[in-house]
Write a structure and sequence with these properties.
Elements: H1 2-33, H2 47-57, E1 120-122, E2 128-130, H3 144-156, H4 161-170, H5 177-185, H6 189-204, E3 208-218, E4 221-229, E5 234-239, H7 244-249, E6 254-257
Parallel strand pairs: 3-6
Antiparallel strand pairs: 1-2, 3-4, 4-5
Length: about 260
Amino acid sequence: MVKGLIGIIEQLSDTVERQQEEITLLKDEINVLKGQKKRPKFKPSKLDTNTDEKSDQGSTDNKRFGSTKRSKNQTLTIHQDNIVQPEQPLPIGARFKGYRDFVVQELEIQSCNVRYRLACYLLPDGSTVTATLPNGLAGQHFGTRLRSYILYQYHQCQVTQPLLLEQLREWGIDISSGQLNRLLTENHDDLHEEKAELLAAGLQSTGYITTDDTGARHQGKNGFVTHIGNEWFAWFQSSDRKIGSTSCHSFGLETRVIR
């Protein structure tokens, strides 16, 4: 009885499907007689077909599409190798067949405190000789890499002093807000000299330059930020007056001011 009922249901389903197709065709004919358009016919998508063909033509590695363009680990330097053994006990007779490499990129940030022990010697005449610190560390309790990072974060990445101070302390750097401010504002004469040399070298080595300035406000006073350069160099200066044209003509160069 159950099998018979199932057969009747299948026949009724087929009948309903055929009737729906006939009704659809009749509706299309009625629309044509009324001067209306037929229903649009949508072609089946070929995405699955193309995917199946590519998977059949490709290798059996089941790699995602595009992953064979290049090896992502070709240019990576491996700093540490960790050998991982299977967790489950191996049965007797298991043979070692090598390793399957899996590279994980990680970032390691930590403080590094270096103690320089300067040797002191007493000379026969009663004077003393003490070793000197390496270049760049004289009078500094913060290394060159740390100072470079602080300057880069503040000037290039626009990280504010409070956020930068919080970040350094979280990494274990013992630094105060006053020390951070001095690192950002003091003892940068070599950088200013390099900036001045950049402008002179750029002006003397090119046949034309462009200048532009924009209004800027600093510590409650109006001023200007001036740009001088071209596609080879760029120089910026903040001042209380426009300095672009004066600096350019002092070198006898043609100036094209961009407004």
